[in-house]
Structure to design on (153 residues):
């Protein structure tokens, strides 16, 4: 535990803020997905996204990498065990809050008579929260999720 605190304290301020936001956001996303479903959770998150403006002094590739790393760390050290959809929604939202456009992808595959799903985030066609090529085994829905209206209440 002491090592984890020391590692957190060694982070620079932007990394700390991103980690703490992801640390709080991941359980909230998980609860919302269970209670409200995907569409209503995504629609709720979209209400808190600012316009598409970026700071001029922002190093976008470094900021993207830092955000993805902090979401992974918050998922590892945080409450519960977030799945790929929880992590991807959190990453997508945190990037959007910084004015960085990204795409939330959801794909499916059939494995041994079972239908499996997987979620990830892409920026410019590059997967951000996929350290391996796991996403290539899934057929992604093309922008279908972006245009879905929220579920009726």
């Amino acid at each position: 535990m002491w090592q984890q605190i020391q590692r957190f304290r060694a982070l620079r301020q932007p990394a700390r803020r991103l980690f703490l936001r992801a640390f709080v956001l991941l359980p909230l996303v998980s609860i919302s997905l269970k209670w409200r479903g995907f569409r209503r959770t995504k629609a709720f998150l979209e209400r808190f996204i600012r316009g598409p403006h970026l700071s001029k002094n922002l190093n976008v590739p470094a900021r993207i990498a830092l955000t993805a790393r902090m979401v992974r760390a918050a998922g590892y050290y945080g409450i519960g065990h977030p799945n790929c959809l929880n992590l991807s929604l959190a990453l997508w939202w945190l990037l959007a809050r910084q004015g960085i456009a990204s795409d939330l992808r959801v794909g499916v595959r059939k494995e041994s008579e079972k239908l499996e799903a997987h979620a990830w985030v892409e920026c410019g066609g590059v997967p951000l929260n996929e350290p391996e090529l796991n996403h290539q085994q899934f057929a992604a829905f093309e922008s279908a999720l972006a245009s879905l209206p929220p579920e009726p209440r």
The chain has one domain: 2-140. Residues 13-36 form the longest helix (24 residues). The beta strands are 103-111, 114-123, 126-127, 139-140. The helical segments are 2-10, 13-36, 38-46, 60-77, 84-97.
